[in-house]
Amino acid sequence: MSVRVRASRLFERQLQSFFKQKRSAHSVGIIGAPFSYGQKRRGVEGGPQAIRDGGLLERLSNLGCQVYDYGDLNLTTVPNDKPYNNHVHHPRTVGSANRILAESVSRAVGDGNLCVMLGGDHSLGIGSVYGNTQQQPDLCLIWVDAHADVNTPLTSPSGNLHGQSVSFLLRELQHKIPLLPGFSWLTPCISAKDVVYIGLRDVDPGEYYIMKNFGIQYFSMREIDQIGIQKVMERTLDHLIGRRKRPIHLSFDIDAFDPTLAPATGTPVIGGLTYREGMYIAEEVHNSGMLSVMDVVEVNPAIAASDEEIRATVNLAIDITTASLGQTREGSHCGIDELPSPSATYEQDEQTVRL
Ligand SMILES: [Mn+2]
User: Fold this and answer.
1) 27-325 sits in which CATH class?
2) Residue 111 marked ligand-binding
3) 15 CA to middle of ligand 1, Å?
4) What cofactor does this protein call for (predicted)?
5) Based on the number of CB atoms within 10 Å of its own CB, is 9 exposed (0-12), middle (13-18) or buried (19 or more)?
6) Cα separation of 336 and 354, whole Å?
7) Is 145 assigned to a binding site?
8) Which of 188, 235, 191, 237 has the alpha carbon at shortest distance from 214?
C-alpha cells in the first residue's frame, strides 16, 4: 500500500470517528401489518412493504436507533365472514387480525422496545392500542386523523371497521358496542379523558355526539387554523401528561395530511395538515420523551395516480416516523464535541508523501 493511500485511509478513519453519531437510547421494534379488511379498497395491505422499500429501517439506524424487525404479520381472511347486521364488513377477519397484532405489539413493548406498527388500514389501531395497554395500562392516546374513527357498529354510515376503532377501545362505550363475531377477546382499555384527536375535518353525527358527550379533547383543522399547531401540541401534551408522565400511543393516519401531500390513501379529505404541521406534531411527541408505540396507517400504494404520488406519500410516512423518533429539522451535534483539527500523524504522513 502506498504511503498516499495509507494517509488518505487514516484521514477517512479520523473523519468517521469524528462524525460517528452517538447511539441513541431508543431500541425500536418494527411490526408490519399488511391488512385491508377494515375498509373496502384493497391495496393498503401493501403499505408496510412500500414503507420498508422507502428506506425506513435504514433511516432509523442512521438516526442511532437499535432496530429490531419483527417482520410482517401473517393476517389471513376468515372464510364465510358474513357482515354483522348486514352492515359491518368482515368482522371475524378484522377481529382475528387485531388479536394477532395485539399479541405482537404487547410482545415487542414487553421486550423493551419502542414500537412502530406499519399498516394496513386503521382498524389495526384496535389491536395496536389494546396490545400496548397489556404492557402499559395507563397509556394515553393521540389520534392524528382526518376522521375520528369513533363510530360504533350501530352508528357507522359505511359499515367499515377502520372508522370504528376508537369506539371499541373506550370504556365509556362498553354498553353501546354489540358483541361482534371475532371480537370476544377484546375489552375496552382506555378512557375518553386519555384521548386527544388532531386534524379532524370529516366527523359523522354519531362521532360528534360521542366526542361531545364523553368529553374527548379534540383539535380539528379549525382549531389548528385558530390557535396554530404550537398551541395545539402544548394543550395536547398538557392535557395528557401535564400532571402525570405516562406512555403515549401515537396513532398517525396518513390521511390527516392534505391530499396534495399524501394522495396515496383510501379516504382523502381536502384541507388537511401541512408538512410542517405534521412534522411539528411528531417532533413534539418525541420531545415529550414518552412515545411508546406509533401506528403509521392508511398508506395505499395501489391508489396513487403515479409513482411520484406513491413516493411522496411513503416519504411523508417515513419523515413523520423518524421525526417521532428523534430526527430534527434543525440538525444535531450528536457525538461531536469539537471540530476536527489536522492531526500530527496525518501531517507526518503527508510530509512522507511529499518526500
Ligand atoms: Mn383513521
Assistant:
1) alpha beta
2) no
3) 45
4) Mn(2+)
5) exposed
6) 31
7) yes
8) 191
Residue 163 predicted with pLDDT over 80: yes
Specify the pTM.
Answer: 0.90
Q: What is the pLDDT of residues 200-259, one digit of tens each?
A: 999 999 999 999 999 999 999 999 999 999 999 999 999 999 999 999 999 999 999 999
Share of the chain above pLDDT 90, in %: 87
The amino acid that residue 300 corresponds to is N
Please tell me whether 26 is known to bind a ligand. no
Contact 195, 265 (CB under 8 A): no
Give the integer Cα–Cα distance in Å for 174 and 228: 34
- Ligand 1 mean position to 124 CA, how many Å? 10
| 107-111: average pLDDT | 98
CA 146 to chain centre: 15
- Largest alpha-carbon pair distance within the chain? 89
Distance 24 CA to ligand 1 centre (A): 30
Which run of H or E residues covers position 208?
helix 205-213
For residue 230, give the C-alpha cell. Answer: 404550537
User: What is the average pLDDT value for the chain, to the nearest integer?
Assistant: 93
Measured between alpha carbons, how far is 227 from 93 in angstroms, rounded to an integer?
41
Catalytic residues: 122, 145, 147, 149, 162, 253, 255, 298
Cell triple for 268: 382523502
- Residue 253 annotated as part of some ligand binding site: yes
CA 257 / ligand 1 centre spacing (Å) = 11
> Is pLDDT at 351 greater than 90 in this prediction?
no
